[in-house]
């Protein structure tokens, strides 16, 4: 049952008078429950509990931590259809999408459970002593990754489950051994509370310390208080550039600056090369339209920028794209603010010099997003940075270049992105190596003949890109390596074996992979 409380550790708490309401973007109606905005004392209590929990949770046995993560997945599934219905109601996303996202959320939790149980993720590196080395003896040095402390996680609007309360950020922070405090996204307050209850039930069933998880509702002041709290040691965020950068700046102004891993947006440039285009321009146009309109364009990997060289084939591509977008039924966007921003940003872009609309730019006015495309000559794109900004929704801008050299300049002009895509033959790649190289310098993931939407959750995934796509392009928010956002290294020098963490002991009782004197071994 949804109570509209914060959870300060396992304690439901409604100290303040300020309230929030959840809305259904499909009909604009508010859900009946009110949600209590956390007071500063509730936030402080949550952080105090997390700080205390950290002393136990950081060194809890890996198998117990894995049990906890798996129990969260079980409890989420036990919420059954009620969770799916609430998440659909609060996000406007269809049932199939939410069911898929629930599966992904549970799989992420299980993936981190497996990672933790196996143990090699700590990257144990051992250089044994050489006491008789001349001119000075070499000490015994043993390094591994360890937890950092309480982590603040901001739920994302566009993934009510997989990037929210028990999403990849929370799963990876908990897996590393850090207590988590979630700041709920205002778009899906009920979904957030249901998942919070599932996490707390799992914590109780598996004997986790009180304070390992807390959840607070509220707006910008709540998030800011959390990020400024001296006991918070890192932040995970997915959302707008404005929000992510504001939190990043705030964290850097603290007496003790902390890392903010913010994934802030991307136009995911897609370069369409001539030989590939000749194969079947209309089919390519339809395939790109499918990616642009997927999830009403509300994916951070949405291909918002297309780049091609002028030709009859590019025109055929453009008209097939425009037609396919017009044929795609408009769907409800995540919330009123996102729908309004989509239409307002699109309108502003269409008024920029050189931009030509391909299709009907009427706005739906009922939170539904209709797909659209426009074209602009590369010469204008290169002069106007406004054309480089993300329009969150089912819109894509086709940049028309005069030749390959202009295409290369477009690639060189781009800011950091999550993904870049080559729609190309191998001969296109060989003929355009400088463009391919320029694009690869801008992105965290580069695709050959695929669509950037659809982010596989696996160890080799890198979902993060050079600034401004994310605040630290070295780290990923998807896949097992997401855990390293919430760890630090510690090196033990000449430490007695029995006092070392299990993963570094001479006998390697967990049998983890370790680099011992430069060689991988178990
Ligand atoms: P958002 O406005 O950045 O908000 C995300 C979260 O951060 C919310 O909980 C928000 O609190 C909080 N927040 C925002 N600014 C803050 C600040 N200055 N200080 C402290 N907390 C702050 O993102 P959104 O609500 O998800 O969507 C808005 C826009 O973000 C979209 O239109 C789109 O352009 C972009 N977006 C991009 C992606 C992507 O992956 N590229 C994903 C989602 C959204 P409140 O709830 O109180 O506002």
TrEMBL record:
Superkingdom of source: Bacteria
- Asked if the keyword Chloroplast belongs to this entry, the reply reads no
User: Residue ranges of the Aldehyde dehydrogenase domain?
Assistant: 22-486
Pfam families according to UniProt: Aldedh
The answer, when asked if Oxidoreductase is one of the entry's keywords, is: yes
List keywords of the entry alphabetically. Answer: Oxidoreductase
Entry GO MF terms: oxidoreductase activity, acting on the aldehyde or oxo group of donors, NAD or NADP as acceptor
| InterPro entries per the UniProt record, alphabetical | Ald_DH/histidinol_DH, Ald_DH_C, Ald_DH_N, Aldehyde_DH_dom, Aldehyde_DH_Superfamily, ALDH_KGSADH
Matching entries from PANTHER family are given as: ALDEHYDE DEHYDROGENASE-RELATED, SUCCINATE-SEMIALDEHYDE DEHYDROGENASE, MITOCHONDRIAL
What name does this protein carry?
Answer: Aldehyde dehydrogenase domain-containing protein
Q: What organism is listed for this UniProt entry?
A: Roseivirga echinicomitans
């Amino acid at each position: 049952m949804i109570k509209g409380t914060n959870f300060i550790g396992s304690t439901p708490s409604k100290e303040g008078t300020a309230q929030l309401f959840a809305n259904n973007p499909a009909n604009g109606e508010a859900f009946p429950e009110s949600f209590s905005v956390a007071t500063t004392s509730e936030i402080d209590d949550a952080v105090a509990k997390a700080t205390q929990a950290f002393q136990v949770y950081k060194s809890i046995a890996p198998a117990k931590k894995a049990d906890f993560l798996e129990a969260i997945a079980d409890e989420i599934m036990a919420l059954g259809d009620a969770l799916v219905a609430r998440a659909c109601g609060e996000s406007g996303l269809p049932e199939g999408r939410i069911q898929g996202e629930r599966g992904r959320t549970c799989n992420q939790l299980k993936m981190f459970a497996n990672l933790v149980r196996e143990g090699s993720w700590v990257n144990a590196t051992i250089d044994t002593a050489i006491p008789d080395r001349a001119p000075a003896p070499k000490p015994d040095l043993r390094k591994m990754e360890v937890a950092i402390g309480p982590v603040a996680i901001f739920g994302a609007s566009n993934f009510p489950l997989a990037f929210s309360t028990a999403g990849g950020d929370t799963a990876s922070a908990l897996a590393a051994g850090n207590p988590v405090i979630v700041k709920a996204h205002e778009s899906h307050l009920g979904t957030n509370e249901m998942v919070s209850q599932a996490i707390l039930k799992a914590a109780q069933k598996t004997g986790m310390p009180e304070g390992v998880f807390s959840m607070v509702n509220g707006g910008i002041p709540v998030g800011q208080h959390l990020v400024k709290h001296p006991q918070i040691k890192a932040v995970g965020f997915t959302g707008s550039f404005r929000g992510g950068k504001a939190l990043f700046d705030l964290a850097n102004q603290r007496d003790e600056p902390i890392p903010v891993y913010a994934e802030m947006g991307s136009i995911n440039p897609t370069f369409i090369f001539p030989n590939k285009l000749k194969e079947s321009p209309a089919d390519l146009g339809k395939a790109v339209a499918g990616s642009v309109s997927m999830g009403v364009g509300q994916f951070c990997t949405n291909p918002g920028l297309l780049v091609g060289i002028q030709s009859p084939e590019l025109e055929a591509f453009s008209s097939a794209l425009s037609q396919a977008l017009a044929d795609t039924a408009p769907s409800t966007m995540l919330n009123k603010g996102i729908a309004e921003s989509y239409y307002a940003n699109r309108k502003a872009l269409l008024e920029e010099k050189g931009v030509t609309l391909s299709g009907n730019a009427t706005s739906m006015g009922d939170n539904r997003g209709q797909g659209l495309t426009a074209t602009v000559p590369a010469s204008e794109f290169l002069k106007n940075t406004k054309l480089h900004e993300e329009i969150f929704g089912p819109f894509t801008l086709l940049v028309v270049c005069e030749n390959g050299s202009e295409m290369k300049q477009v690639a060189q002009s781009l800011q950091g992105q999550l993904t870049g895509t080559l729609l190309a033959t191998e001969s296109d790649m060989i003929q355009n190596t400088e463009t391919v190289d320029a694009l690869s310098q801008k992105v965290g993931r580069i695709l050959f003949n695929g669509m950037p939407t659809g982010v596989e959750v696996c160890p080799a995934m890198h979902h993060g890109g050079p600034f401004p796509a994310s605040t630290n392009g070295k780290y990923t928010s998807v896949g097992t390596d997401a855990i390293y956002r919430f760890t630090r290294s510690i090196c033990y020098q000449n430490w007695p074996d029995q006092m070392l963490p299990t993963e570094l002991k001479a006998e390697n009782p967990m049998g983890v992979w370790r680099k011992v004197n430069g060689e991988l071994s178990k």
